[in-house]
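Whether sequence alone determines local backbone shape is best considered at the level of individual chains. Part of our work consisted of pairing the sequence of a single chain with a tokenised description of its backbone. This step matters because it turns folding into a mapping between discrete strings. For completeness, the protein is quoted in full, as a sequence line and a line of structure tokens:

_____
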Amino acid sequence: MNVNVLEAVRTEAPEAVVVAVSSNEVYGPPDSLPVDETAPLRPQNPYAVSKASGDLLAGFYADAHGLRVVRPRAFNHAGPGQRPIYAIASFTRQVAAGLEAGDEPILLVTGNPDARRDFTDVRDVVRAYRLLAEAREPGVFNVCSGRSSSPRDLVAALSAATGVAIDHVVDPALVRAHDVMEVRGSADRLRAATGWEPRIPLEQTLADTVAWWREEIRAGRATGPVHE
């Protein structure tokens, strides 16, 4: 969150609601599961540090100036349009490329097959942001499904969604040396404030994202190596 935006709201529109999007990365490795909003902030990489600083800055403006600042901390989200540096985007792109090439089985390369993450469809995440803005209740809110899935689970779900066999290969170069084995959040506070629940099942997220990647490949917009 940019200090100039907060200053502009403070001076020009103090009744406005500010949605300062944060990330579950601010929590760092969880001490217990599910992670709720009372967990300490222990960011473990530069991106997480930047999100934590923006999160704290937004909280300061809420406390010091009485602004209505909502701080949603989104866990992993996925869906059509996401870059393949993210797990589900990479996996679905690989499957889409295999389908377009007529491969069977389709080769799908992953890192750690058993590290579990909490995935929510990006369309549900955006709906949570809108509901929080409309509710006008300031504070911190996790945006998450409360369920975790591993790459092994995602490969099986992709095979079921597409009806083709997948040859799952683990690339040691993609396995992190000190990977956190499970991250899973609690969205109880968000649910209590807005009534939000995720509507789009993971299977639909996967199918929709594969379909989107197939269109991108046909249009020549999916460039670069398939296995990233």
User: Anything to note?
Assistant: Residues 3-218 form a domain with the Rossmann fold fold (CATH 3.40.50.720). Residues 96 and 214 are 5 Å apart (CA to CA). The chain is about 40% helix and 15% strand. The helical segments are 3-12, 46-65, 87-101, 122-135, 151-162, 188-194, 202-218.
